[in-house]
Amino acid sequence: xxxxxxxxxxxxxxxxxxxxxxxxxxxxxxxxxxxxxxxxxxxxxxxxxxxxxxxxxxxxxxxxxxxxxxxxxxxxxxxxxxxxxxxxxxxxxxxxxxxxxxxxxxxxxxxxxxxxxxxxxxxxxxxxxxxxxxxxxxxxxxxxxxxxxxxxxxxxxxxxxxxxxxxxxxxxxxxxxxxxxxxxxxxxxxxxxxxxxxxxxxxxxxxxxxxxxxxxxxxxxxxxxxxxxxxxxxxxxxxxxxxxxxxxxxxxxxxxxxxxxxxxxxxxxxxxxxxxxxxxxxxxxxxxxxxxxxxxxxxxxxxxxxxxxxxxxxxxxxxxxxxxxxxxxxxxxxxxxxxxxxxxxxxxxxxxxxxxxxxxxxxxxxxxxxxxxxxxxxxxxxxxxxxxxxxxxxxxxxxxxxxxxxxxxxxxxxxxxxxxxxxxxxxxxxxxxxxxxxxxxxxxxxxxxxxxxxxxxxxxxxxxxxxxxxxxxxxxxxx
Length: 479
Ligand SMILES: Cc1cc2nc3c(=O)[nH]c(=O)nc-3n(C[C@H](O)[C@H](O)[C@H](O)COP(=O)(O)OP(=O)(O)OC[C@H]3O[C@@H](n4cnc5c(N)ncnc54)[C@H](O)[C@@H]3O)c2cc1C
Fold this sequence. Notes:
Blueprint: E1 2-11, H1 15-26, E2 31-35, H2 42-45, H3 48-66, H4 83-106, E3 113-115, E4 118-120, E5 125-128, E6 132-141, E7 145-147, E8 160-161, E9 175-179, H5 183-194, E10 198-203, H6 214-225, E11 229-232, E12 235-242, E13 245-251, E14 257-262, E15 264-267, E16 271-273, E17 307-309, H7 320-336, E18 349-352, E19 357-362, H8 365-368, E20 373-379, H9 384-388, E21 395-401, E22 407-414, H10 417-429, H11 434-438, H12 448-461, H13 470-473
Parallel strand pairs: 1-2, 1-6, 2-3, 6-17, 8-15, 9-10, 9-15, 10-11
Antiparallel strand pairs: 4-5, 5-6, 7-16, 12-13, 13-14, 18-19, 19-22, 20-21, 21-22
Helix pairs in contact: 1-7, 3-4, 3-5
The structure holds flavin-adenine dinucleotide.
Flavin-adenine dinucleotide binds at residues 11-17, 34-37, 41-43, 46-48, 51, 117-118, 142-144, 163, 184, 274, 277-278, 311-313, 318-321, 323.
């Protein structure tokens, strides 16, 4: 066994760990990067990129089927989905993205890259595999997260897929049961549905999507219910194999029992931080009841220790741009320890690439409800541009501080939400007030006009509109 010393040891060569490493190097300190799995990052290998590639294929199929809405007829038998070719392209493009990431890691000095699982054996001492003891001045934990498997599925594991294994299938399955109706389950399950796979979603709770706003959640559920087979409030009674199929037996909330057969099951009930192998009991860190180190999200420091967390491991904001940001904060502070400095965090933003797309930003409805807010609302059901493109299903709810009129947050779903949610998040981060936002240009006819309707609704509820120019109030005629 060998012993290595370094200024900063980084556990995990994913997005958070790589950003932390760069900051340590920038600060002129030495580093060691420890990775137990393949290089390439979760985002590129099994997360953001392959899921969006699958959705791109599904969009093509969906577009062909919907063309008749516009008087463009493609005979159903002319739409043929090549189930191997779909996954071939997903993997080809995915490999391009992940190879680019892996090449950047492989270009780092080999002596500073350690292969193996790291675990704490002292406050800043790590054992890597059984071959290397690392003595560091500071540690960044950036070990990511892993898909959770529902207990009911443990007996049929060979047929159970996760986002780690789905994209490795040689061909799309004939049918699949998706456990989980959060953003990842919906993105993957809906894409498979649009690609001709028979899909049913299961959730013991009667919940679809991540929303905390009951009005948005209910409308979103109605919209998805019209398109997908949703078994909500389902109590799984039995899972078994039969003649090469998975048989799921469940009871619905009305007490009726159902038995359905599927070729595969996708577990998408959430992800758990990779904490268990870290032996944190040797780190001396204070842990919460989930076993996560208690940390300050402005510095990413765990208590006053020279240990920092970043990315999915901390369970706070499990999205890519936050893994990058947290990696930068953790790396810079680990390099500077004990001169740790706080950084302004960005307004929260998460997007689901469902149909229709969904987003949450800034304060959630649940958080906003603890303050004095007014809610600006608009529906996409009759919104001009949304009707033009035949995607007129959606709802926006904005949470606005009653005293300052500043936009605090929003929950929304609808067409083009990946773009409109960015505009709202940027406005919330700049602490713009409703009147400031209504003075901005809105081109016609666009999906952004749907946002303006919600801003105007908030403006009316705040009694602001009399002071506005007529066109900002919504009095313009001839739209
Ligand atoms: C299907 C799916 C779709 C997603 N889509 C989006 C999206 O559209 N947009 C978005 O913003 N986010 C999305 N995400 C989330 C995003 O991928 C993650 O937030 C991000 O990749 C987390 O980066 P990370 O650095 O924390 O973890 P990772 O990239 O997972 O890095 C952690 C690394 O640590 C290593 N490791 C673990 N334990 C140890 C140990 N003990 N010793 C050494 N190494 C260890 C792991 O092998 C891994 O390589 C998606 C995730 C999934 C699963």
